[in-house]
Specification:
Length: 411
């Protein structure tokens, strides 16, 4: 009898894990496949200058998204998972986290207002920044951490794919000329907000979880719990997103668009490396002996992507994006090693150090390469512009790979 019950539980757990895995894989695939359809169209219709403006606006707003996220995608997910069968506790977690996120949203909006109305560069296209800020509102409304903690990833998948699919179709309908550039952030933000509102309805109807006001002590506790993760999540943006943001003050929006296009193409390839990491990580947790086999597969894939970028960029980029994108090819060549370095980083980082529970080493590594990237960007970008940003990014990712391979020690 007991063995039958255990067998049943194992079967149910396996089905749930498989369902969550397929949902995550589908979601991540959609996140990068659908933009492949709109990216060439937007570059051709809007031109590099307006494409660069939108990239700069998003690079600005991403900082506010990090602030409002505040590491809850890890801490709140963990808390929900631990208390999955305790409805009152889940209501406390859900309510406290949502209160904190809305307070951070208010602070973020006030900072954006100060930025826009005090710096001419932002004031000139203020409507673009405010419309793009709608993605922050949507992120706050959409408690992904709740669904992850409850292991109901299918809801996240459905809502995200629905919003991105609607956005993809809308782009081809409403974006017809360069002057329509402001519609892009409007459509993007609308998709985020609608998905967020629908997610709250699902939480109330399917999980019977309601919002309740929480005391200041409870709110302070959850705020404190998220601080360390928030700092760790913020640091990598000191070289990654900051490079695009900082670059916008030294080059034209057209040049920023050229750089952003190269980054987006490389990020699409990097996304497949991330998917491989997310697939292999849970497998290696219980099968660390297979590490070297997974290592060879991931690194070989990274090398293949590097080879494809170097050998095919000059043929594919002008054909898909138009001849205005030709200048992106130089920066694609510089960034082409990124998938290879990322494969090494994920293999020796999350797929080895984290599995071996060397969290402190990973945290130390994050500090090192983030600070390096930030300092280098401050030096190279004012001197060399887009070239400096490209060198900053690829050298930082090279350092990432070396540090993870060495376990945090260069010597």
């Amino acid at each position: 009898m007991i063995s039958k019950i255990k067998s049943k539980f194992k079967s149910e757990d396996s089905k749930r894990l498989l369902s969550n895995f397929l949902s995550l894989l589908t979601l991540q695939g959609a996140n990068y496949i659908l933009p492949l359809l709109t990216l060439p169209y937007l570059v051709r219709v809007l031109g590099m200058e307006k494409f660069g403006l939108l990239a700069f606006a998003m690079a600005t707003i991403i900082f506010f998204k990090i602030i409002t996220e505040y590491g809850f995608h890890l801490t709140a997910t963990r808390d929900i998972a631990f208390n999955r069968d305790n409805r009152d506790k889940i209501i406390e977690i859900f309510s406290a986290v949502m209160i904190i996120k809305f307070l951070l949203l208010l602070v973020s909006f006030m900072l954006l207002v100060l930025l826009v109305f005090n710096i001419e560069k932002f004031y000139q296209y203020r409507e673009v920044y405010f419309l793009t800020f709608g993605t922050v509102i949507g992120q706050v409304l959409f408690p992904v951490w709740f669904f992850q903690g409850m292991e109901r990833m299918k809801y996240i998948t459905f809502l995200n794919i629905l919003s991105k699919l609607i956005f993809t179709i809308a782009v081809f309908i409403f974006i017809q000329e360069e002057s329509d550039f402001y519609i892009v952030p409007l459509l993007t933000s609308s998709g985020f907000i609608v998905a967020g509102i629908l997610s709250l309805f699902i939480i109330r109807k399917e999980f019977n979880i309601e919002f309740r006001l929480q005391g200041s002590l409870t709110i302070k506790t959850y705020f404190k719990n998220g601080w360390n993760i928030f700092i760790v999540e913020l640091l990598p943006n000191l070289y990654n997103n900051f490079s695009t943001f900082f670059l916008g003050f030294f080059v034209s929006m057209e040049m920023l668009g050229i750089y952003s296009l190269a980054i987006k193409i490389i990020d699409i390839l990097n996304s497949f490396i991330r998917i491989m990491r997310n697939v292999t990580y849970p497998f290696l947790v219980n099968n660390i002996s297979k590490f070297h086999i997974i290592l060879k597969v991931m690194v070989s894939t990274g090398l293949l992507f590097t080879f494809l970028v170097i050998s095919l960029s000059h043929l594919i980029i002008p054909y898909i994006f138009g001849y205005s994108a030709n200048e992106s090819i130089l920066y694609l060549y510089i960034l082409s090693l990124s998938p290879f370095f990322l494969a090494i980083t994920f293999s020796y980082g999350s797929n080895r150090l984290l599995i071996l529970k060397k969290d402190k080493e990973m945290k130390y590594i994050t500090y090192q390469y983030s600070i390096y990237g930030f300092i280098v960007s401050l030096v190279l970008i004012p001197m060399y512009g887009v070239l400096g940003a490209s060198i900053t990014l690829i050298s930082t990712r090279f350092l990432m790979s070396i540090l993870t391979y060495k376990g945090g020690r260069l010597l």
